[in-house]
Amino acid sequence: MRHLVCVAAMLIALTTTANAAQGHVPAAFPSLESAVRSVKEADFCGEPVPMHIAEVRERFEKELLLMLWDRAQVILWLKRSARYFPHIEKLLKARNMPDHLKYVAVIESALRPEAGSWAGAKGLWQFMPATGRKYGLTVDRRVDDRRNFYFATRAALDYLQKLYDQFGSWAMAAAAYNMGENGLERAVEKQETDDFYRLHLPTETERYVLRAIAARMIMEDPARFGFDLRPEDYYTPIMFDRVRVKARRAVPLMVIAKSANTYYKTIKDLNPQLLSDEVPVGEHPVFLPVGATEGFLKRYSAVLAEYRKEHGPRTYRVQSGDSLTRISRRYGVSIRRLKRLNGLGAKGIIHPGQVLRLE
Fold first, then answer.
1. I need a surface site. Which of 12, 75, 110, 149 has the fewest CB within 10 A?
2. Number of helices followed by number of strands (H, E) in the chain
3. What residues are paired with 317 via a beta bridge?
4. Which of 16-30, 61-75, 130-144 has the lowest mean pLDDT?
5. How far apart are CA 134 and CA 175, in angstroms?
């Protein structure tokens, strides 16, 4: 028995030594009770939160407790914030909009540009297709700007500013961003108040602003809530150059990658708005790694010419149910050009199995 105790003690000592050598530190953070108890007041974009209202205080405490319980999620928020916040902060400052609005992106998508919802919202700011188009984003079968953090941020701030101008409060603007301005207007008219904290709204919207406030409180002062991240723990900010690619015919992303002296994955990751492995017909901004624009156009011309020479014109075999209109939309080639390339008459009659030139 004595021998076993000695062995156990030795194993504990070895484990402790190994952990220390690897930089492992025992967790130490405030109890949930004390963390909640420490919050006496709060605001959103400079607008005070009425914590003296018991029901509002309870709603806020729920959001704060849930976030503090899910520490892994908060750590990821903090790490990702260094990737996206610098750009969002720059735009907010330039527009003289409150810095707190960046936390809307946190609660919308957990700062994941690839995020999507069952209802069809996409991207860091979770735009629905129609709303995205309304605020200048391209959303179609080939390009979805909602997925590009750079484009979506500009559109989101345009939308939030419009909502603030409409409702006169940032809390109400955020609520409208979540549930839609028409629904919020109806609630205001029916309930005869425009005070967010006094309105009865869908549960998700009632939680929405308070979630943003709780996220801000934690992320602005993570050490207060027991999060011990060091500068090297944060992810690298997104940096990129941009070029405009004019394509009479779709250009494979591999051509872009070779011209930028980088990898396909790098181009794909920097351009999540491109839904296929091509830059569609037309003129499109394309994001490149920093420094890749130098000499890009010269390399691009050479690489593209070599690709065209090797692969020849693209073709498509007509399937049952196809029409020139459908093929035109799918591949970004005008019906007129399809007819000319394939010697089709005015009626443009095609049949299954027929091979059409697309370029």
1. 12
2. 15, 8
3. 355
4. 16-30
5. 19
What are the tokens at 132?
Answer: 């995205």
DSSP 8-state class, residue 235: P
User: Whole-angstrom Cα distance, residue 251 to residue 142?
Assistant: 12
Structural domain for 347, as ranges = 316-357
d(CA 64, CA 212): 10
Mapping DSSP onto H, E and C, the string for 75-98 reads HHHHHHHHHHHHHHHHHHHHHCCC
Q: Report helix, strand or coil for 17.
A: helix
Nearest CA to 224 out of 40, 82, 22 is that of: 40
For residue 181, which of 199, 164, 156 has the smallest C-alpha distance? 164
**How many domains does the chain divide into?**
3
- Is position 211 within any domain? yes
State the pTM of this model: 0.83
Instruction: Name every residue whose Cβ is closer than 8 Å to that of residue 120 and which is 6 or more positions away in sequence.
Output: 128, 129
Instruction: Look at strands 282-288 and 278-279 and give their pairing.
Output: unpaired
Which residues touch 81 (CB under 8 Å, ≥6 apart)? 106, 111, 219, 234
Residue-wise pLDDT for 148-169, tens only, equals 999 999 999 999 999 999 999 9
